[in-house]
Amino acid sequence: MNKQPEATAQTRQNLIDAFWSLYGEKRIEKITVKEITARAGYNRGTFYEYFQDVYDVLAQIEQSLIPSMDELPPITMQNQQMGMPLDLFLNLYEQNSKYYAVLLGDKGDPAFASMLKNATKPAIKQALAETHDIDPIELDFILEYVLSAMIGIMSYWYRRDKALPAEDLIGLMHDLMENGVTKRLSKPQ
Fold this sequence. Notes:
DNA-binding region: 32-51
Protein name: TetR family transcriptional regulator
Keywords: DNA-binding
GO molecular function: DNA binding
Domain HTH tetR-type: 9-69
Helix content: 55-70%
């Protein structure tokens, strides 16, 4: 591939976009290279310059959406409580909402949520290790619970067409993390 980098990147992106439009319509096992290339306007040979198969397209998309440690918002500890920067996580989700809404939805890839959690856990563990003496196994379970809840509620928010304003969603998530569901449900209306 001794082509111009801009043209190469555009061709790759066109193939990704064609795949993504098909992935939004049907399950990955039903998508063919022929359909992707027909939709993108290229031949099969061009597809194989960039990807091994349709699963490789999905894997490359997912990999590009997993934040690196440098991209994650800073985790701070305030008053010995975990200060989860929910608004920054929500911004990360919003930046990638085209993909996250599908990948974390009912027809998405269940492995993607695990990849997202595993990318986030080390930063939170590091922040907690500096201020808390907690059993590492217990901490892992706590983080699994919190991150699953965060991913779940943000995904649900998108499926419900952002029925709550973002500020209200963040407030609700903070309240649930700080006070729990039982306290929230027992509040007088």
